[in-house]
Amino acid sequence: MSPHRTTIEEYFREHLPASVKEAMAKIEEQTGIKRSENRVREFLKSIGMAPRKVGMIPAKADHEKQESFLKEDLEPRLEEARVGQRVVFFVDAAHFVLAPFLGI
């Protein structure tokens, strides 16, 4: 695959493969060279590509409700805090910890 390295690299930078199997198929389609998943995975690593984890988008997010909260509730309160009429605290999301935790 070395003679085709730059061509393959440019192609994958524009058309990210969703999987190693997809990358295998595209490499074979473009060059006629068939390689194993392991070889293709190593090749992708050598050109600086790495697998990424998929994130989740909340399925039940109501964009209108979020926009309404932002405009009608949050922004006015933040503005009041800026001029000293209100105190606003940021509280990060909480989750359960299954270990001893000392709160000070």
Element layout with pairings:
Layout (H helix, E strand, L loop, with lengths): L4 H10 L5 H12 L5 H10 L16 H20 L22
Number of helices: 4
Ends apart, CA distance between termini: 59 Å
Question: What does the radius of gyration come to?
Answer: 25 Å
Mean pLDDT across residues: 85
The run of helices and strands is: HHHH
Shape: elongated
SS strand fraction: under 5%
Q: Please give the largest β-sheet.
A: none
Low-confidence stretches: none
Helix coverage percent: 40-55%
Multimeric state = single chain
Structural class: mainly alpha
How many strands? 0
Structural write-up:
Helix content is 50%, strand content 0%. It starts with a helix and ends in a 22-residue tail after the last helix. The model has no long low-confidence stretch (mean pLDDT 85). It is mostly helical and 104 residues long. It is built from four helices and no strands. It has a domain at 2-46.
Quick summary:
With 104 residues, this protein is mainly alpha-helical. The chain is built from 4 helices and no strands.
Q: What brief labels describe this structure?
A:
mainly alpha
